C-alpha cells in the first residue's frame, strides 16, 4: 500500500485510498478546475474538503502542501518515476493531469501550444480580473465608496468577454477541441452569475460565450466536478 505519511497534510485530512490522487480543494472557480479535470480524465482520486477559512488553508498541515495557502492542491502517490508528487496552482495541476492521462492537451505540438496560450490567458487575465470584479461588486469591496475600483474591473471584464466572444466565433471550444483551457476558463464565466454581475458586464450581448458556457455545464463530468468536494461537509 502507498505510504503518504511523509506528507503532514494527511494527518489532518487522512487518505482512505492512499493509492489514488489526493485532491485538497473547495468548489470555487479555481478549485473546480482540478475536480473537473480528474472527472474528465477518469484518473482515480480521493477528494478532501479544504474550506477557505484560515483554520483550514492556513493550518500548518495545509501550508506544508501549499505555502501560498490557496486551493486546489494535489498529491499523486504515483508521480513521475513512480514517486509521490505534491503540486499546487490550478494551472500547473491541469497541465500535469492532462500529461498524466494523455488527454485534454491537443494532438500536436501546435495545438498544445494554442491550448496553453488560452490557459495562460485565463490564469493571468480572466481569473484575477473577474475575481476582483467579484470583490468590488458583491463582497467586502462594495463598502468602498470610491467607484473607480469597481468601474475598473467591470470595464476589464467587459473587455475580456469581448476577446472570448471573438475567439469562440465558429468554434465550440476555446482552442478548437475540448481541453484544459476550457476547464480553466468556463468556471470563471460561470462566476459572473454567482457575483450577480452578468447584467453589468453585458453577458447577454455575448451569445458565443452564453452558448459556450451552456455546452460546458451540460457535460456530465463537469456537473460532478462542480460539486466535488461538496461545499458542505
UniProtKB/TrEMBL annotation:
PANTHER family: DISULFIDE-BOND OXIDOREDUCTASE YFCG, GLUTATHIONE S-TRANSFERASE-RELATED. SUPFAM superfamilies: GST C-terminal domain-like (SSF47616), Thioredoxin-like (SSF52833). CDD domains: GST_C_Ure2p_like (cd03178), GST_N_Ure2p_like (cd03048). Residues 108-233 form the GST C-terminal domain. It comes from Tropicibacter oceani. Belongs to the GST superfamily. This is Glutathione S-transferase N-terminal domain-containing protein. Residues 18-105 form the GST N-terminal domain.
Amino acid at each position: 500500500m502507498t505510504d503518504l505519511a511523509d506528507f503532514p497534510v494527511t494527518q489532518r485530512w487522512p487518505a482512505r485510498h492512499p493509492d489514488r490522487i489526493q485532491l485538497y480543494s473547495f468548489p470555487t472557480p479555481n478549485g473546480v478546475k482540478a475536480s473537473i479535470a480528474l472527472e474528465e480524465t477518469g484518473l482515480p482520486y480521493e477528494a478532501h474538503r479544504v474550506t477557505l477559512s484560515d483554520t483550514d488553508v492556513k493550518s500548518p498541515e495545509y501550508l506544508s502542501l501549499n505555502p501560498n495557502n490557496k486551493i486546489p492542491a494535489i498529491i499523486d502517490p504515483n508521480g513521475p518515476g513512480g514517486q509521490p508528487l505534491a503540486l499546487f496552482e490550478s494551472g500547473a495541476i491541469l497541465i500535469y493531469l492532462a500529461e498524466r492521462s494523455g488527454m485534454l492537451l491537443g494532438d500536436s505540438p501546435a495545438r498544445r501550444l494554442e491550448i496553453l496560450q488560452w490557459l495562460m490567458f485565463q490564469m493571468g487575465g480572466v481569473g484575477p480580473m473577474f475575481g476582483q470584479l467579484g470583490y468590488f461588486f458583491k463582497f467586502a469591496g462594495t463598502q468602498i465608496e470610491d467607484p473607480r475600483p469597481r468601474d475598473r474591473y467591470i470595464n476589464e471584464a467587459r473587455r475580456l468577454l469581448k476577446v472570448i466572444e471573438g475567439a469562440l466565433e465558429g468554434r465550440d471550444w476555446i482552442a478548437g477541441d475540448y481541453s484544459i483551457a476550457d476547464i480553466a476558463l468556463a468556471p470563471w464565466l460561470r462566476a459572473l452569475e454567482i457575483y450577480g454581475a452578468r447584467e453589468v458586464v453585458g453577458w447577454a450581448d455575448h451569445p458565443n460565450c452564453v452558448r459556450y458556457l451552456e455546452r460546458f455545464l451540460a457535460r456530465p463530468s463537469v456537473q460532478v466536478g462542480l460539486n466535488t468536494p461538496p461545499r458542505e461537509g
